[in-house]
């Protein structure tokens, strides 16, 4: 059955902005994050401590984290790819990190300049380093990308995803987010993947889903995941986003579209939809183009 509440893991400030061509001022990013928290989102991924040459848009990660230090009642995780990124994050007092690996070799090389095995080893160093620095005070989330298909390799095998994902959970990730980086998945595939994790000993309560809406499947896939026992859903305010190293990746599932569906189902999110829509309209103004979210457009037209 469906849950009474769902935890939304907001990725707009990170996944949403990482692909933005024009620089977004640090002050706009921090106001965006502050407004998202004000709209009731309790987990807002803030930025990435990746190589600034690889993702120039997030080169101000340290400044973003510093500027948000006073913000309470919200977790602000950041992406960390390697030990260099971990050191930078720790220097800025970060206690919530997310590591990421690909289920496919082609994307692993393009996104991390590593094979899958090498990126798992790099990730293990990050988790070990985080434990040494902060013990259990530092929480580590794991992402697996290209869980359904890859633009260079075609459909991704369920075994490959469960293999990589199980390694991340065994390394100590408290939660595993299954990424449909290019949005090709469909509900039956979602159900089969979550069931395969269950058979491998990893219940749906340890899983989150991370859908990009390229093929318009994100909401249907989310419902399938909820029916399979998933309770955490990643989404991006206004539907911003896309990965710079993944051909044909577009925006994430829009948080507003997700909230509309969940509230319609009587599922609690803690999110004030009107405040969230106002935030996305404000951000769309800054970016100079309308939000792709259907709910943002519909409510703005009312
Ligand atoms: P590399 O070029 O192999 O780096 O990149 P390296 O390890 O060879 O190091 C080269 C130099 O960079 C060294 O400096 C390092 O210190 C420095 P030198 O000794 O030459 O002076 N360096 C760094 N500096 C600052 N911060 C760092 C860092 N690391 C190394 N973190 C690397 C390897 C992993 C760094 C690079 O490939 C990278 O940054 N990739 C990140 C790509 C990315 O951010 N992609 C988007 C996020 S993933 C995503 O969007 C998917 C997701 O949303 C889920 C889904 O949708 O599926 C999560
Ligand atoms: Mg993503």
Brief synopsis:
Residues 6-277 form the Pyruvate carboxyltransferase domain. InterPro entries: Aldolase_TIM (IPR013785), HMGL (IPR043594), PYR_CT (IPR000891). Strands 1-10-9-8-5-4-3-2 form an eight-stranded parallel β-sheet. The chain has a two-stranded antiparallel ribbon with strand order 6-7.
Arrangement of strands in the largest sheet: 1-10-9-8-5-4-3-2
Span between termini: 33 Å
Helix content: 40-55%
Number of strands: 10
Outline the low-pLDDT stretches: none
Helix and strand sequence: EHHEHEHEHHEEEHEHEHEHHH
- Shape estimate: globular
Q: Which cofactors or ions or other ligands sit in this model?
A: 3-hydroxy-3-methylglutaryl-coenzyme A, magnesium ion
Described by strand count, sense and barrel closure, the largest sheet is: 8 strands, parallel
Percent of residues in beta strands: 5-15%
Cα-based radius of gyration, to the nearest Å: 18 Å
Helix count from the secondary structure assignment: 12
Mean pLDDT: 96
- Secondary structure category: alpha/beta
Give a verbal description of the structure.
GO terms for molecular function: lyase activity. InterPro entries: Aldolase_TIM (IPR013785), HMGL (IPR043594), PYR_CT (IPR000891). Belongs to the HMG-CoA lyase family. It comes from Streptomyces albipurpureus. The longest helix is centred in the middle third of the chain and has 19 residues, at 116-134. This protein has helices spanning 12-16, 26-38, 61-67, 83-91, 105-112, 116-134, 158-171, 187-199, 218-227, 255-264, 273-287, 294-301; strands spanning 7-10, 47-48, 78-79, 96-102, 139-145, 149-150, 154-155, 175-180, 207-211, 232-235. It contains twelve helices and ten strands. β6 (149-150) and β7 (154-155) form a beta hairpin. α8 (187-199) packs parallel to α9. Bound molecules: 3-hydroxy-3-methylglutaryl-coenzyme A and magnesium ion. 3-hydroxy-3-methylglutaryl-coenzyme A (HMG) binds next to α4, α5 and β5. 3-hydroxy-3-methylglutaryl-coenzyme A is lined by residues 15, 18, 48-51, 54-55, 79, 81-82, 84-85, 88, 100, 111-113, 143, 145, 179, 181, 210, 212, 243, 245.
């Amino acid at each position: 059955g469906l849950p009474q509440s769902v935890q939304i893991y907001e990725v707009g400030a990170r996944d949403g902005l990482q692909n933005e061509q024009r620089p977004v001022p640090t002050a706009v990013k921090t106001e965006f994050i502050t407004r998202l928290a004000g709209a009731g989102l309790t987990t807002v991924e803030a930025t990435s401590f990746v190589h600034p040459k690889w993702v120039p848009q997030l080169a101000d990660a340290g400044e973003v984290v510093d500027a948000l230090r006073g913000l309470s009642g919200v977790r602000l995780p950041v992406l960390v790819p390697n030990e260099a990124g971990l050191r930078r994050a720790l220097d800025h007092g970060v206690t919530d990190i997310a590591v990421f690996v690909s289920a496919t070799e082609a994307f692993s090389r393009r996104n991390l300049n590593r094979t899958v095995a090498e990126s798992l080893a790099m990730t293990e160093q990050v988790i070990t380093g985080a434990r040494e620095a902060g013990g259990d005070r530092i929480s580590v989330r794991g992402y697996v990308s290209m869980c359904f298909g890859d633009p260079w390799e075609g459909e991704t095998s369920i075994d490959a995803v469960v293999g990589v994902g199980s390694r991340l959970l065994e390394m100590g990730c408290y939660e595993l987010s299954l990424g449909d980086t290019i949005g090709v998945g469909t509900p039956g595939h979602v159900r089969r993947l979550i069931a395969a994790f269950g058979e491998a000993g990893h219940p749906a309560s340890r899983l989150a889903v991370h859908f990009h809406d390229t093929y318009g499947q994100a909401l249907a896939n989310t419902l399938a995941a909820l029916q399979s026992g998933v309770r955490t859903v990643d989404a991006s305010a206004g539907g911003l986003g896309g990965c710079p190293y993944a051909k044909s990746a577009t925006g994430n599932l829009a948080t507003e579209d997700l909230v509309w569906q969940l509230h319609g189902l009587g599922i609690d999110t803690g999110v004030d939809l009107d405040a969230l829509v106002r935030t996305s309209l404000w951000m769309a103004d800054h970016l100079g183009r309308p939000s792709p979210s259907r709910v943002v457009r519909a409510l703005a037209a009312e």
